[in-house]
TrEMBL record:
Protein name (record): Tetratricopeptide-like helical
Endpoints of the signal sequence: none
Gene Ontology terms for molecular function: RNA binding
InterPro entries per record: E_motif (IPR046848), PPR_At4g14850-like_plant (IPR046960)
Highest taxon of the lineage: Eukaryota
Pfam families: E_motif
GO terms under biological process: RNA modification
Length: 151
């Protein structure tokens, strides 16, 4: 990064932060995050990435500090959702959504799908869940949420 012909921007530092998370290099990730926060202190995604970097290392106290920093600087992460088109009608879903008219059928289908997948050898990638909860809870979280990022 020091030898680039131009000054690295927040996107470049963000790529380094993501790579640091993937390659479990917390020290480098912290340096990249600090540069991002200087350039874009409002960038919620980078706070979450840094928090995930800490969580992957089991540094739960630092995860809590990042959440407090987000709160103290009034930075908020937008909730994600999925969009599915069925017979020319668009349906929106977010994690834990029970407002859809067919939510009971949808969740029942997901349960059936999970059973079929497990029979074929599927194992939840629980290491991708960045919360300090037991493995069973992590597997449950993965069942209904697809925003897990790279392994």
């Amino acid at each position: 990064m020091n030898d680039m012909p131009c000054e690295p921007d927040a996107a470049t530092w963000g790529a380094l932060l993501r790579a640091s998370r993937i390659h479990e290099n917390t020290e480098l990730g912290e340096k990249a995050a600090e540069m991002i926060f200087r350039l874009e202190p409002w960038n919620a995604g980078m706070y979450v990435l840094r928090s995930n970097l800490y969580a992957a290392s089991g540094r739960w106290r630092d995860v809590s500090k990042m959440r407090l920093k987000m709160r103290d600087t009034c930075v908020r992460k937008m909730s994600g959702y999925s969009r599915v088109e069925v017979q020319n009608q668009i349906h929106l879903f977010s994690v834990g959504d029970i407002m859809h008219l067919d939510s009971k059928r949808i969740y029942a289908f997901l349960e059936e799908l999970e059973l079929l997948m497990k029979r074929e050898g599927y194992v939840s990638a629980t290491k991708l869940i960045m919360h300090d909860v037991d493995e069973e809870e992590k597997a449950h979280m993965l069942k209904y949420h697809s925003e897990i990022g790279p392994a």
